[in-house]
Every structure is written in structure tokens, then in C-alpha cells.
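Deliverable D4.2, example record:
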Amino acid sequence: MASAAEQLAANINFGAFSKATELKKRIWFTLGALIVYRLGTYIPLPGINSGAFSSFFANQAGGILGMFNMFAGGAVERMSIFALNIMPYISASIIIQLMTAVSPTLETLKKEGESGRKKINQYTRYLTVVLALVQSYGLALGLEGMNQAGGSVVIDPGWFFRISTVLTMVGGTMFLMWLGEQITARGVGNGISLIIFAGIVAALPRAFAQILELGRTGAMSSWFIIAMLVLAVIVITGIVFFERAQRRLIVQYPKRQVGNKMFGGEASHLPLKLNTAGVIPPIFASSLLLLPLTMVGFSGANAGTGNGSWWSTALEMVTRHVAHGTPLYMLLYTALIVFFSFFYTAIVFNPTETAENLKKYGGFIPGIRPGKNTADYLDFVLTRLTVIGAAYITVVCLLPEILMAEYGAAFYFGGTSLLILVTVTMDTVAQVHSHLLAHQYEGLIKKAKLRGRRG
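Output generated by the structure prediction step:
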């Protein structure tokens, strides 16, 4: 027999949505906030020669700037006030998470509950400001050193430009961080994830237009375009399957007697995700591999000519052998994804701590002794899951690289961007479903109260 929750979930429809006033307000607030973000990506940074920067960016679109531009929804390409996007905050969050595993102070704060979480969030904000200051100042210096055929990228270089750029960039990042927090609190879904989601989605229409234009001009056959669309559907289906996949370990709690009543004895489960690391491994791997290519572009090295300093020449040689589509690039990409999958999983899930908590509350896994044996068993299961998860992420991320290398096809429906799109969509839909479920529960409670009063 289906549970009450399952019956309510089955009865959720558009009629229930139309009656959920609070949910509609949250959705409209989320949409309004994302529109504000998209408008901000079109406000240019003061003092930039847009024509000269467009020429420079066209030569560097395959480097790390191109990846940041994808996450920023074109803000880097236009060099807008949101060019740094929310990336400093994400970097700060990851750094704080990593430091939590090695810092006793942060580890203690993590165990303090809500108050400790607030302090950790505050430290994350401080670190975001520091990272944004460093990145914006480095970007200002880099912009001043760019010279193209259309002239200098910066109209009037100097300290005034640097200070104004730093203040504008840091202000833009902090505003997006605040906007993301507001979406999380007053909207639907995780605000930071939705901001990145909106940036990636904004680039999809142009990607579709480019594919259709290739088909119209005959550069790409219609059958190949259809095959790519079918492949995109298959990849999306696979991502949904793997992201929802879990290994549920049964946890048994012993019976205990309190007075004349018997409590406990029920069985629960400990869910272990197949992909515990999420999208962090491909982001880190892409950043590290694209860094040499970007440094070559900023240093002004000329590929194949031998001009420039020894440092530029060395970077150019590394870039030539680790370019997109080369076997070495794919090998390094795979190795880095696997490494960061295991590394980040070890950071976010501690088998020893989980085993201690189970032992503390009297829970145990049937057939496994509490304590160290449970920790070893959890580590064994998690390692096997991470192997499968790392293989799945590697396949999804290497697919566009193989298509571009072998067929010259720009496959926009694979890699980190698609992982983010699918996971954020799933999380947001789950939250909407939870709000609808809560709304129907409230309706049932009100009806029960009215019947009780009539009775």
C-alpha cells in the first residue's frame, strides 16, 4: 500500500500549483533576480575599448577565459561589471571546505550546528572579498598589457583605471553573492547554482544558432546534427540516472525501554551517492589544463615563431602539446578528474566520523561491528562508488573533446556545463515538488481541523 506522502505526490498537479500562492511568489522572485543578473552582464566596465578587447577575446576563447565566459553567461566576453561572476565565492567555499578537514578550529565550528555554520559562512564571505580583490587587480593589470590591432584594450591606463576596476569588480561579485543568498532564502532553489545555471542557459540559443547555420551552409550534414541531438538526449538521460543513483546501506537501531514503553528497533538507511564530488572535479581539471594556454595569451607569445621570453616559449611548447583534442590533453584530463573525484569525496564524507555518529546513537550496519569495522566498511563501499562516479564524469566530459577532435563538431551538450544544467534543474524541481507537497499537507490539516470543529 502506498504511503500518505506517495499518494499526495501522485495527486500534485497544475491545480495545486495554481493554489500555492507562496510558491508562485518565490518563483517570480527567482525569475526577477535572475533577470537583474542578466541585465548586469551587459553593463560594460568603465575605460575599456570594447573593439580591441573583442579581438583579443576571440584569440583566447579556447583558454580559461572561454570557460569563465561560459559560466558568466558572456560577461567576460563583454567585460562587464559581472565579469568575475560568482567564481570567487565558489573558490572561497571550496577552500573553506578543504580547510575544515585540516583546521581544528573550523572543524569545531562545523560541529556546533547553526551558529557554527553562520560563522563559517562569514569567513567564506571575507575570503571571497580577498579573492575578488586579488583577481580584479590582476585582471586590471592584464587588461592594461593587452594591445591589439584596434589599439590598446584600456583607453586610459593608470592607477585610476586599476582602482575603479577593482572596486567595480569586487562590488559586482559581492552583489551577486548577496543576490544568490536572497534567491536561496526568498526564492526557489540554490541561488548561487541558479546564477551559474542562468549564465550557461543564456549561451544555448547562440550555440543552437551556430549549429543550424553550419547545417544551412553545408558545413555539417543534417543527419549529423540529428545524431548530435539524439546523443544529447542520451547524455542527459545518463546524467539524471547517475546523479540520482544511491547505495543505501541499512542501519538498524536497537530497542530500548523507557518506563513501560519500548522505543526503537526500527531500520533506517544511510544513502551514499554515486557521484559524491558533484561538478567540482571537472571544474578543477579544466582550470588547471587551460591555465597554460591563458598564460601564453597574456604573455603575448607567438606560437611557432620562437619570439618572446624563454618563459613564453616554454609555455607555448606546453600549450602545443596539451591543446584541446590531443591525446596528452585527454589523458591528463582523465587523470585529474579521477584524482579530484577521490580527493573531494574524501573531504566531504568522513567514514570515521560517520561510524562514530552511528555508534553514538546506537545504530549499526547488520553484519558489521560498530566502530573501526564500520568505518572500514564505509570506506570500502565509498571507494567502489567513487570509481564508478569518476568513470561516469570522465565519459561525460571527454565526449565533447572527442567529437571536436575527430569530427570538428562543437558539441555543446556535454562536459561541465551539462552536468551543472541537469543537477541544478533536478535540485530546483525537487524543491518545487517539496513546496507543493507541503501546501497539500497544509490543506489536509485545515480540512481536518474544520471537520473536528463541526464534529
